[in-house]
Amino acid sequence: MSSTPDNQCLLQTPYFRVVREQGYFIIKEAQAVNGVVAIPTLADGRLMLADLRRRAIGGQSIEFPRGAIDAGESPCDAAARELLEETGWQASQVRQLGLLHSNTSLIASAVAVCQVEIAEQQAGATDGEVDKVLWVSRQELLAMIAAGRITDGHTLSAAMMLLAHEAS
Question: What is the pLDDT averaged over residues 3-11?
């Protein structure tokens, strides 16, 4: 196997680049904050989770809605858009809780975490990605995590960030 010089681009796609820097392989995306996790919250405190098929794991996943941030879009706007596209529910208020890094040894970009308040309403049309929506209390969320029903790293991190903000 031939050696690769440092600071070289090894792969470039429309979505990301893989570079070698100082002996490490790093995935770099176009934006420093490239994605968003939306934590949909009703006035009574219940949280919305999405049950959807994730092809990378070959099965269903229960997670908070999430997606990419479009160029020029704020994380809060992206959270509201992703929620609407995936679930048909409109955001009434959005606040950014912070950032998470999915894999600090491999991925350079961060993901924003936003709490999205939604009003009781009838859901509209969706993009078909989500199979069903679940409404859970914080206690039920913790029980699902403890039972291993939620394994998505973004959802686990976002749940912890939400609970930490509420405790402070």
Answer: 77
